[in-house]
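notes to self, project folder thing:

trying the whole complex as one job this time. last attempt i did each chain seperately and stitching them together was a nightmare. three parts in total, labels are on each line so i dont mix them up again. if this works i'll redo the older ones the same way
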Amino acid sequence: MPELAEVEFYRRVWAVGLGDVVTSIDLHPQARVFRGTEPDSLRPLAGSTFSSALAHGKQLLFGFQGAGWLGVHLGMSGALSIAPPEHLADRHDHLVLRTGTQSLVFRDPRMFGRVRFDLGSEPPEWWTSQPAQVLSQAFNRKRFAQFLERRQGTPLKALLLDQSLFPGIGNWMADEILWRARLHPAKLPNQLSKCETSRLWRITREVARDALRVIAPDWGEAPDDWLFNHRWKAGGICPRPHCRCPLARAELRGRTSCWCPQCQDLASS
DNA sequence: TACAATGTTTTAAG
DNA sequence: CCTTAAAACATTGT
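result (full assembly):
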């Protein structure tokens, strides 16, 4: 489920525990979410103070004073929540951090998500070496144009999903971006005019900003003039005021895309 | 029942 | 080393 704004929402959920001391942890050692990580390596968390909560694209990093860094990726079905101190981990609650007053719960039924842990006082290398955030200053028009030039043969939709270029963009955001930019998901970067490339850059950032504003504080509902509320609906139509054309859906590179055949013409430019 | 779900990694080929 | 494409991963809900 989670993309940029949903991940930020979950960061804030756990952040209510900042400053608390972790008294104990519960985990499912055999769960796939610990692949690449020795579950026992999380032991130092017990007794440490929860001191920072960061999000970068779809990655989460939680700092624990005197212990280290807990990395969390929510995959397709992951979620973070707060529960009472006595909360019993159910089948899908793979990690629970208990403080005196509450439990921080990581849940992931499909287990495409991942948990890792690194010792040390500085954030781990995998965190600090991440690509520039879409809303950062470094993510400028020139850099964006370079991405498109380098990946000329990749359809725009697939390109936007590349986390090494656009951290945090996921399936619904990519569809929303292309719909607002009036560009067909299967269009190739080298078919874009300079003007369209600039527009796509601007709207990529606009959607990221809007998503964070609407969703991150309290998982607010998307407005009806976004594509979001229409894209999975049976018989969904384009929410653009003078369009109202039935939306199209097709699989592209293993993910379902939704677009408006009227507004997002493959041939036009 | 069968298919699809807001994601990444691996593997392979060019 | 770079780009591109497809399959695999695991579970649930329609």
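what i see at first glance: The helical segments of chain A are 4-15, 125-128, 141-150, 156-160, 171-181, 194-215.
need to look closer tmrw
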